[in-house]
Design goal:
single chain, 298 residues, alpha/beta, Elongation Factor Tu (Ef-tu), domain 3, 2 domains, globular, disordered N terminus
Length: 298
């Protein structure tokens, strides 16, 4: 994003978090484009902080958002940043309810309230680690900006462009229900696709592609986002194979700041993590299992 990147939290050099301004800001829609069953909502936000890959924003339409039976949404909705380009922040949407439907209806020039970037994003791979990006459904969104960062097309917040690692190609594995949704694979470059109905690419689950890739891969790390069942399969597979994994969870969020405890997931040690504050990206080793509500809709 062409705007300023804010510093990490005081006392921390954490590259996974860019601090958001304390107040929401009003931006405008620059484009709303169809991508198969999805929409790519592009918001002109030239002065907003540059997000770390994996962070999210809370979005709400300025008009017709709450205040009556026909304007049901009241709380902003959380969306991973899918891409940042030329002063725009891009978000991948699917119409799955009244909140997402209202956002999917927006046109160029319409106003949107945005609060973000929020949460903690992905950590970059260690030297020599091969990055495997695994996504499912609308959960592919944060993998796009991660791919940009890994391949040197997006400078990570707090780092000068010359400090971005030399371009390296990430392996991208994406799964979808059907052909219409599989069009979303166009958000990333060079993706191998699986479809539940066999209409596109591999007939079956994306985790089957991952299992094959891990069998031949050497020093790898997995980055994943998608439905809870997919994330659990990725977590279990990586645990079995001794492969590190970072999982972007998308539990329903009411506040985005960790105040309401509405998005907690259990950790392996018996404690709880707030997805909006301690995540949304968590190390798979922290989790004994993926809670059913902690995944993006397929």
């Amino acid at each position: 994003m062409s705007g300023r990147a804010q510093a990490p939290e005081r006392g921390s050099a954490d590259p996974r978090r860019t601090l958001a301004p304390p107040e929401r800001r009003r931006v405008r829609v620059s484009a709303n484009e169809a991508l198969g069953a999805y929409r790519v909502l592009k918001l002109a936000d030239p002065d907003g902080p540059a997000p770390a890959p994996g962070q999210f924003s809370m979005l709400a339409a300025v008009d017709r958002w709450g205040a009556g039976e026909d304007e049901r949404p009241h709380l902003a909705r959380a969306f991973s940043v899918a891409r940042v380009s030329a002063g725009e922040a891009h978000y991948l949407l699917e119409d799955v309810g009244p909140g997402t439907r209202r956002l999917c209806e927006l046109s160029a020039g319409d106003g949107v309230w945005t609060l973000g970037p929020l949460g903690r994003g992905f950590e970059p791979p260690a030297a020599g680690q091969r990055a495997l990006l695994v996504g499912g459904g609308v959960g592919i969104a944060p993998l796009a900006i991660l791919q940009d960062a890994l391949e040197g097309l997006y400078a990570l917040p707090g780092r000068r462009s010359e400090e971005v690692p030399a371009a390296r190609r990430a392996t991208v594995l994406l799964g979808f229900r059907d052909r219409d949704r599989a069009a979303g694979a166009g958000l990333l470059r060079g993706a191998r696709v699986a479809s539940d109905d066999g209409s596109v690419g591999h007939a079956g689950h994306v985790t089957e592609l991952l299992e094959r890739e891990l069998a031949r891969a050497g020093h790898s790390i997995v980055y994943a986002c998608g439905p809870a069942a997919m994330l659990e399969a990725v977590r279990a597979l990586c645990e079995r194979e001794g492969i590190p994994a970072q999982l972007a969870l998308e539990a329903g969020m009411a506040c985005g700041f960790g105040a309401c405890y509405g998005c907690v997931v259990s950790r392996r040690d018996g404690s709880y993590a707030r997805v909006c504050l301690d995540g949304p990206v968590l190390d798979a080793a922290e989790l004994a299992a993926i809670d059913e509500h902690a995944g993006a809709p397929a």
